[in-house]
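Q: Sequence in, structure out?
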Amino acid sequence: MSHFKRLPEFEKEFQKLQKRYRSLPDDLEKFQKILEIDSTGVGKNFTITYHSHKCKIVKGRLACESLRNRSMRVIYAYHDDTVDFVYIELYFKGDKANEDRERVRQYLKNVEKN
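A: Exactly. Output:
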């Protein structure tokens, strides 16, 4: 059984974007079902940006119905040993060009401490 967690920053972004894109909760649920089948996603819509013995950081495209088949970007961590997924960042490519790499670094720094 997989566990899905959200960083507080992700939760703020999700709440903000949900007001603009009403299908987002359902879209995220569909995304989670894909991750339960294959933890690093399927096809060219998923890219592993970091890999260590503790976790993998993956950038995935979240198909959003409200965007008429365009996609949001989701940055998440997958922990093999605990089968945990941690959502790190959510953004629309039209609003922001790239992920917050400093947030990812900070997350990895915290993971390596524990």
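The beta strands are 3-6, 46-51, 56-64, 70-79, 84-92.
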